[in-house]
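Appendix B, record 7
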Amino acid sequence: MTIEQIKEKTLYGDYTLLGQVMGINAPAAKMRFFRGDETAKKALLKIIANREALIKEFQKKQTLLK
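Structure tokens (predicted):
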């Protein structure tokens, strides 16, 4: 996935979490990602994937409860 494609999937707070994961502040984490840092890219992809999976899991549970 390209940086542009990942950027389209990011939501508010993703860079904050990326910074926490990397042990740096959010603006520095965001800049590392945009500069092509592989660790930042892998971590951000994992953050996005986990968020999407969590949303699907809870939406599925809500549908089953109706």
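Remarks on this record: The mean pLDDT is 95. The CA atoms of residues 2 and 8 lie 10 Å apart.
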